[in-house]
Amino acid sequence: MRIAIASDHAAVDLKAELREYLIELGHEVADLGPETADRVDYPDYGYKLASVVADGTVERAVALCGSGIGISIAVNRHPALRCALVSEPLSAALAREHNDANAIAMGARLTGIDMAKACLDAFLSTEFGGGRHAGRVDKLSHPQIAELTQESAA
């Protein structure tokens, strides 16, 4: 699988470890930076990550910052992205199964390497469940569908 990974300065070490782990698992990894712990702005890397998922360059993405919150917000600004902030494997699996998440975010200050690997494993091995979830997921990228549904129900 083609996977992009990006972080801010607070998560550069976790990013490096997860990049190597993904490569060991046989994935093709695009490291979008940064390469050093010099201060950077997480939105810049979140937007960059979102663009390569949206244009099909990669299939999935991993976003990292100190808490995972800021970069997940940045990634989710793109309508084609569904980035879930996860802290354990169950939330990572449910993000895929129920929400067809194409990206996950984690906080380097909150999530240790073993837990981060377990989250990655769950995220990458879980398929989207489809069914009743499909229409809901479609509304995430197309808010006008939700508006039409609400209007017809009124």
Automatic annotation (TrEMBL):
The active site is at C65 (proton acceptor), H98 (proton donor). Transmembrane segments: none annotated. InterPro entries: RpiB, RpiB_LacA_LacB, RpiB_LacA_LacB_sf. GO terms for biological process: carbohydrate metabolic process. It is an enzyme of class 5 (isomerase). GO terms for molecular function: ribose-5-phosphate isomerase activity. Pfam families: LacAB_rpiB. D-ribulose 5-phosphate binds at D8, H9, G66, S67, G68, I69, G70, N99, R109, R132, R136. Keywords: Isomerase. Its EC number is 5.3.1.6. PANTHER family: DNA DAMAGE-REPAIR_TOLERATION PROTEIN DRT102 (PTHR30345:SF0), RIBOSE-5-PHOSPHATE ISOMERASE B (PTHR30345). Belongs to the LacAB/RpiB family. This is Ribose 5-phosphate isomerase B.
